[in-house]
Each structure stands twice: as C-alpha cells, then as structure tokens.
Amino acid sequence: MAQAYTPGLKVIRRHWHSCRRLLPVTGEVVVAAGDRVEAEEVVARTSLPGDVSPVNLANALSISPAEVPDTLLHQVGDEIAAGDPLARNAGLFGWFPKEYSAPVAGTIEAVSPVTGQVILRGLPHAVEVKAFLQGRVTEVIPGRGVVIEAAVTLVQGIFGVGGETYGVLRMAGTAPDTVLTADLIKPDMRGAIIVGGARVTAEALTAARAHGVAAIVAGGIDDHDLRDFLGFDLGVAVTGSEALGLTVIVTEGFGNTPMAERTHRLLAARAGCAAAVNGATQIRAGVIRPEIVIPWPDDHASETQAPIAEAGHLAIGRQVRMIRDPYFGMLGIIVELPAEAQILGSESRARVVVVELAAGERITVPRANVELIESDSDMP
Predict the structure, then answer these.
(1) What residues pair up with 199 in beta bridges, in sequence order?
(2) What is the model's pLDDT at position 91?
(3) Which of 124, 227, 276, 292 is the most core-located residue (most Cβ within 10 A)?
(4) What is the distance between the alpha carbons of residues 109 and 107, in angstroms, rounded to a whole number?
(5) Residue 107 — very low, low, confident or very high, per pLDDT cuts 50/70/90?
C-alpha cells in the first residue's frame, strides 16, 4: 500500500545529530577528525577579497588620464593605509602642487592611463566558521569544513529571525500559555536563551535586547510586533542574516499561540544546560527550520537511541499539529488514515486523516492540513 508523507518538525529529547560546518570558499580547517570541539570554537577559517574602491585620479588632480601613472607615489601591489598620500602632481611649473590621499586602506590593484582611474582593493574580510554543535569531529572536508556529531536534544521551530547564538537555557514562562512580557525579562538573563510560553510581545523583545539576552524562544508572535521589532516587513526569503542583537524563534506560529505542552516540558527539563540556537528560516525549496540544539554530556552519548519513525511518514499513533483553520495550532494523534479520497465541506475531494485531539474529539481533515511532530518515545 502506498505511504503518505507530510512535512514535520522535530521535537526530540535525545537524538544523534550530525552537523556540517562549511566555509563559503576554500580555506583552512583548523581541527582534526576525532577532536572534541565546543560550540563557539572556530573549526575553519578563510578570507574574502576586500571591497573595490575606484578612484578617479585624473579628476581629483586635474590632469589627463595618461599622466596618472606618473603621479602615483606607490606601485601596483603596494598596501596603503587610509589617509596616506596616494598621488601627487607637480603643479604648473612647479607651483601649486596637488596631493591626493587614499580614501580607504587596502592594496593598489590596477591603474589605467586610459580612464585615469586607480583601483584600490580593500583589506580582506576574515571569515570564521564556529562548530555550533558541541561534539566530536567525525569527518574533515579538506579546505572546506567538518562534520560534527553529538547526542542532543533537538527542537525545531516554525519561524525565526537572527543568526546563530549561544547561551544557557532559562525558563521565563512557567506554563505553555504564559505570555512573555517585558517584566519577565530580568537583567541577570544577559547572554541566556530565554524560553517563554505563548506569544512574546514587542516590549519583551526590546527589553531582552536591552538586557543582552542571546535568544528568545516562544510559542508565537504577532506580525505587527515582529514588524515593530525588525523595523521593516519581512519578504519571502531566507532569514537569519538580520543584525538584530537578538535571535527569536517561535515554535507554533503567529498570534497568541501557546507553546505545545510537550515542547515546553522538554525545554524546561533541559533548563540550565548550554544550548545553541539558529533563527535561519527558509520556506521555499530546500526548507530550513530554525532550531534549538542542546547537547547531552558525554556520558549520555552512548545511550541507546529510541527508534524514530521515518521522517515525514504519516502513520497511526503519530502526533500532528493542525496548520489550517478552524483547528489551527491544535495537537492530536492520528487514529485513522482512510485510503480513499473523501468529499470535504468545500465539495472538493482529498485524501484525509482522522485525528483525535487532546480533549478526545475526533476530527477529519485533509492530509495537507497537518504537520508531523517528529519525536522519540523517550520523553521526560
């Protein structure tokens, strides 16, 4: 019989996680296979060419382009600091000589007697890739990066903004439906990853950034609060590159949506542990989920992992979340998977799934309206 699949989020207490950490261009890998690395440890580095700054010396010195090479005080390939003399003309019969200083630091890359321009190449940009995952290097990809593996607690979110950051997990929401407000953000939370309950308010985000909080994890967020915090509307793109001073991850969706009880309970069980988070999100092809990764100590790494059902595979007994109205955000367990398509209230035909909600109510919804909560069976 054909199997059915649907997208899913991972909420897993103990999971053997593999992480590829790669440079954007060829560089140097600074660790070896078998090394144990910390989350913020640099594992590879390289440099990218600096920015190009064209300088029209012919105009600046009021000379012809052909005269420009003779006015240069340095050779092609020389490094020069910002403000250093770059070129000087002799003036008229030695009177009123004119000098031009380099506008930026860099290297003289080219000079043209045709256009009268000098090309300055800015200083190289250093690029470093951190481990992100505290664990052991299992593979080195020469010149590009490494593969790191470790036993972790893994929680994926629906949406996030902000890049990679690190900190100790702390609970600010005592229950999954606690709204994360500014008064719950304390000065001693600097550098921490704060877990709330339901919606996080714009005031709480502002307070978190002011107190130096590393990241906020909450059930939901209002779109206007997100816009006020960002200062702009997000388009359909990859997030994670925003320079916000704070990473934000929501686990359920937009609006005042409580965090799933399992997710909240799992994060609360790991409170006080060091974690790494990444708010990068992509909703187009090649989906990227924001994630919270909490490594287990070495003595947990060898524990037998609970079997996890095939990713995305719909099966009786698996937990799902509704992602369309009128049951948006509700969680339930699959109890039936009818093989034949059924006629819906809209009079269209679709394959459906029967889900038993937490309150015991059974509902029939299109399979496209559910999302799997992928997890192990060994929950706290």
Answers:
(1) 220
(2) 65
(3) 292
(4) 6
(5) very high
